[in-house]
Amino acid sequence: MTDVLIIGCGVIGAACAYELAHSNVSVTVLEADNDVANGTTKANSAILHAGYDPHPGTRMAALNVEGVALARDICARLDVPYDPIGSLVLAFDEKDLETLNVLYDRGIKNGVPDIELLTADEVHAMEPNLADNVCGALYAPSAAVVSPWEYCLAMAEVAVKNGVELHRNSPVTAIEQIEGGFRVHTPDAVYEARYILNAAGVNAGAVHELVAPKEYHITPNRGEYYLLDKNQGQQVSHVIFQCPNENGKGVLVSPTVHGNLIVGPNAEGVSAADDTETTSAGLEFVMNAARRSVPGINFRENIRNFAGVRANHSSDDFLIAESKFVPGFFDLAGIKSPGLSAAPAIAKEAARLLAGAGLELPPKADFADGRTRVRFNECTPEEKNALIAEDPRYGRIICRCETVTEGEIVATLSTPIPPMSVNGVKRRVGAGMGRCQGGFCGPRVQDILARELGCSPVDIPMDSNGTWVLCGETKSKAN
Ligand SMILES: Cc1cc2nc3c(=O)[nH]c(=O)nc-3n(C[C@H](O)[C@H](O)[C@H](O)COP(=O)(O)OP(=O)(O)OC[C@H]3O[C@@H](n4cnc5c(N)ncnc54)[C@H](O)[C@@H]3O)c2cc1C
Predict the structure, then answer these.
(1) Kind and range of the H or E element at 103?
(2) Which of 10, 28, 51, 117 has the fewest CB atoms within 10 Å of its CB?
(3) Which H or E element spans position 88?
(4) What's the chain's average pLDDT?
(5) Using 50, 70 and 90 to split pLDDT, how confident is the model at 479?
(6) Is 34 in the pocket of ligand 1 (CB under 6 A)?
(7) Which residue has the CA at smallest separation from atom 26 of ligand 1?
(8) Residue 185's pLDDT is what?
(9) Would the CB of 171 count as within 6 Å of ligand 1?
(10) pLDDT at residue 153 tops 60
(11) How many Å apart are CA 479 and CA 477, to the nearest integer?
């Protein structure tokens, strides 16, 4: 019987696995998809929010501010792209200026470091491309941008390296209460665990109801985005928000850690947890709202639209608690924004709850932290030569837009959580992230994966299982 079984390996499940891997306890993670970070964790604004939005006194406020501070160190240790660019909330009129005062007071109460109210002149000096009618801003230097999927993957990889068992393609379909814990069923296996952490994101309510009566309701809410080419990445140098409203933090414009410009999201209730469609109406709304902040964005430079689904529920806080009816079953649910920012602090809170329920967490003396990967496009010419001398596959460029080599792609297959799909490679080394969005390198990545895994390219999906690229027989080049 494993001590703790975590259901779901988005950023919350991964952060919990990473946190618990520091202790001498056995941990198993079950992920429904063929990859980690393939739910909401891969489709969001990628902002580590400073923490002035949540209401003071809520758990969300405390965990947001703590999580952002923890994230800075984790990203440094685990080689995760992270840039502390700070954020600005813009005011366009008197009412907005009042809102900024409210946010400033909240920020002070929440312990957000160094926040400041700026005049129109100050904000225009910092961001010359903003609309002329911006009349003030709230500046929060502790906000940052991050690669959300690498953040999740890095924590999951280090957890696995330290003994956590991760099973992908393992959707939990049934949970029974047994003497001293739980029996958890997936289509292919049965697991037993003393405690369960439910980190199933927008599916957390459904997972909860596999073992307990309904205690909350998750409402999926979709946000749509534009991702613009790198020639738009310098439009702004901070995360640019508008004042929040009843639909959330509103439409933002921000550079990404990869040098692109991200614009979005809207907020629209949807009926299905996996409804990540983009719509012309949603995207038009986003475009018009963003132009209010930064009129000169050239949307013809758009390279990708995508959508993510928020796990909304009726309260203004995260739902982090043991079930009232099923001792030992803990929900980490309703983890809407700022869930990415709060993730490592949520994991520490989960560990505290487990300890409170009787789980001993003795520190693991030989915990091996740290992780790094080769980024060929960031190497000096000398480093490139050395890599190529050691392995000529570093001399073959597969992704021309992002200068990703065959050597980097092959190296991912020896990592603790190797990719199983074309987009799995994209999330690990950036092949397909550039202007052509995999139009050139996608088939080559598919070929390399098939060759290295000893299967047919037909068996390599684009992303989740079932997203097949090819069907029928492929002929080898020799024929
Ligand atoms: C539009 C949008 C913008 C956002 N922007 C930000 C932001 O800028 N900053 C911020 O801090 N937060 C942001 N968030 C919130 C943040 O993205 C989420 O809080 C965070 O990603 C939630 O992570 P998670 O691990 O709970 O969920 P997920 O990433 O969805 O992971 C849940 C995992 O559980 C798995 N799963 C589901 N059911 C089962 C099952 N039965 N068995 C096994 N596995 C299962 C899924 O496959 C999935 O991998 C945003 C969210 C959205 C939608």
Answers:
(1) helix 94-110
(2) 117
(3) strand 87-91
(4) 96
(5) very low
(6) no
(7) 201
(8) 98
(9) yes
(10) yes
(11) 5
Q: Does the beta carbon of 11 lie inside 6 Å of ligand 1?
A: yes
**Percent share of the chain, pLDDT over 90:** 96
Residue bearing the CA closest to ligand 1, atom 41: 172
pLDDT band at 373 (very low <50, low <70, confident <90, very high): very high
Place of tokens 């393992």: 170
Token pair 């902040």 in the structure block, residue = 293
CB-ligand 1 contact for 30 (6 Å cutoff): yes
Catalytic residue, chosen from 22, 49, 55, 217, is 49
Q: 380-385 contacts: CB < 8 A, separation 24 or more?
A: none
Ligand 1 contact, 31 CB (< 6 A): yes
Q: Whose CA is nearest to atom 31 of ligand 1?
A: 10
pLDDT value at 477 more than 60:
no
Q: Tell me the per-residue pLDDT of 48-101, one tens digit each, with 9 for 90 and over.
A: 999 999 999 999 999 999 999 999 999 999 999 999 999 999 999 999 999 999
Q: Ligand 1 center to residue 340 CA distance, Å?
A: 8
Residue with tokens 């690229």: 469
- How far apart CA 363 and CA 361 sit, in angstroms, is 6
67 close to ligand 1 (CB < 6 Angstrom): no
The pLDDT score that the predictor gives to residue 35 is 98
Q: What angle do CA 128, 132, 134 make, to 5 degrees?
A: 90
What phi and psi values does residue 391 have, to the nearest 5 degrees? Answer: -150, 105
Atom of ligand 1 nearest to the CA of 11: 25
Ligand 1 centroid distance, CA of 277 (Å): 16
CA distance 99 to 97: 5
On the CB side of 141, CA atoms within 13 Å amount to 6
User: Is there an atom of ligand 1 within 6 Å of 45 CB?
Assistant: yes
Global pTM value:
0.97
Instruction: State yes or no: is 49 an active-site residue.
Output: yes
**pLDDT per residue as tens digits for the range 246-273:** 767 789 999 999 999 999 999 999 999 9
Residue by residue, DSSP assigns 296-309 as T--GGGEEEEEEEE
Residue 342 CA to ligand 1 centre (angstroms): 12
The closest residue, in CA terms, to atom 37 on ligand 1 is 200
Q: Characterise 364 by phi-psi region: left (phi > 0), alpha (psi -120 to 50), beta (else).
A: beta
Strand positions, DSSP E, 105-229: 116-119, 136-140, 144-146, 165-167, 174-178, 181-185, 190-198, 219-228
